[in-house]
Design brief:
This protein is of the alpha/beta class. About 35% of the residues lie in helices and about 15% in strands. The protein has 10 helices and 7 strands. Strands 1-2-3-4-5-6-7 form a 7-stranded mixed β-sheet. α5 packs across α6. It binds adenosine monophosphate (AMP) and manganese (II) ion (3 copies). One manganese (II) ion binds next to loops.
Length: about 280
C-alpha cells in the first residue's frame, strides 16, 4: 500500500477558511493527502460536500470539528475526529456556542471603530462564507484588504488579541462539554495546537490531566501552528500523559498560514499516531 499522508486539521469557508469544502478537498488530494479531516470551527455543515468530493478524488475523509473552549482565562481549541455530525448531543452543543458570535462581532467592531477603523462589521461579514460563524479571521481579512495591516499573521500581533483593539473576551464551551459532545458522538477528542496557549508547564500539565480524566485521547504534535522545535516537546508530553499524537496543517487559505494543506513533516518516531487503530488506514 502506498504511504499514507494524514492531514487531520483544516478549514473551509463553512468557518474561517476561504475555500468551499469541495475545493479544499481537491487541493488536499492534489497535494498528496490520502486521509483528510475537515475540522471547521463549531460547525459540521461542510462535511457532506467534503465527503462527496473525497469520493470523487479517491481520498478518505474523516468527519471532524474544532470546538472553541473557555478554560479558566484561556481559550482552547479541541478537535473532534471520527465524530458523528448528526449526533444530537454534538449538534445541539455546537448550535449553542455559535449563537454568541454575532453579538461578539458587533462589540469587536465597536472597539475597532474607536481605534479609527471604520465599517469593520460590514467588512468582516463580506469575508464570511457562513454568517453564523463570523470570527476574528474575517476581521483580519478585512484589515488586510483595507491596507491597514500587511497580512493576517501581523493582524494577530496588533489587533484582535488580548490587550489589543478588537479583542472581546467570550464564553465558549467548557472543556467538559466539548470533550463530552465529541465522545457522545463516537469521536476522539484531541487538543489542538497546544503550543499556542501561552501557558507554563505546570498549567499545561494540569490541562492534560483534566483532559484525560474527561475522556480526551489525543494531542496535536505536528501542526502548522508549531515550530519544528516544538514537535519533540509535545511528542514527549504525549508520551508522558499516554496521549495519541495527531498531525494537521490547520490550513485556512492559499498563502495565508505557515503550512499548506498536506505539507507537514512526519510525526516523531516515539509518537503513537491517533490513526494507529483506525480500520481503513
Ligand atoms: P475566533 O474563533 O473568532 O476567536 O477566531 C479564531 C481564529 O483566528 C483561529 O482559528 C485562527 O484562524 C485565527 N487566529 C487566532 N489567533 C491567531 C494567530 N495568532 N495567528 C493566526 N491566526 C490566528
Ligand atoms: Mn481559524
Ligand atoms: Mn485552532
Ligand atoms: Mn483550526
Amino acid at each position: 500500500m502506498p504511504e499514507q499522508n494524514f492531514d487531520l486539521h483544516c478549514h473551509s469557508n463553512v468557518s474561517d477558511g476561504m475555500l468551499p469544502p469541495a475545493e479544499l478537498v481537491a487541493r488536499a488530494a492534489a497535494q498528496g493527502v490520502t486521509v483528510l479531516s475537515l475540522t471547521d470551527h463549531d460547525d459540521v455543515a461542510g462535511l457532506e460536500a467534503a465527503r462527496a468530493a473525497a469520493l470523487e478524488h479517491g481520498i478518505q475523509l474523516v468527519n471532524g470539528v474544532e470546538i472553541s473552549v473557555t478554560w479558566g482565562s484561556h481559550t482552547l481549541h479541541i478537535v473532534g475526529l471520527n465524530i458523528d455530525p448528526a449526533h444530537p448531543v454534538l449538534s445541539t452543543g455546537l448550535e449553542g456556542i455559535r449563537h454568541g458570535r454575532g453579538e461578539r462581532a458587533a462589540k469587536m467592531a465597536a472597539q475597532l471603530d474607536k481605534a479609527g477603523i471604520k465599517d469593520s462589521l460590514q467588512g468582516a461579514y463580506q469575508h464570511a462564507g457562513n454568517k453564523n460563524l463570523i470570527g476574528r479571521m474575517h476581521f483580519a481579512r478585512y484589515l488586510v484588504a483595507q491596507g491597514i495591516v500587511k497580512d493576517v499573521r501581523t493582524v494577530f500581533k496588533k489587533y484582535l488579541v488580548k490587550g489589543k483593539p478588537g479583542y472581546v473576551s467570550h464564553q465558549w464551551a467548557s472543556l467538559a462539554e466539548a470533550v463530552g459532545w465529541i465522545v457522545a458522538s463516537g469521536g476522539q477528542a484531541v487538543i489542538a495546537h497546544p503550543g499556542r496557549y501561552q501557558m507554563g508547564s505546570g498549567k499545561m500539565h494540569e490541562l492534560l490531566e483534566e483532559f484525560k480524566n474527561l475522556g480526551g485521547v489525543g494531542i496535536e504534535v505536528v501542526t502548522g501552528s508549531h515550530t519544528p522545535e516544538q514537535y519533540p516537546q509535545y511528542a514527549n508530553l504525549a508520551q508522558k500523559f499516554g496521549l495519541l499524537s495527531s498531525r494537521g496543517s490547520d490550513f485556512h487559505a492559499p498563502g495565508e498560514g505557515y503550512r499548506d494543506i498536506g505539507r507537514l513533516p512526519a510525526l516523531p518516531e516515539l509518537c503513537t499516531p491517533i490513526w494507529h487503530d483506525w480500520a481503513a488506514c
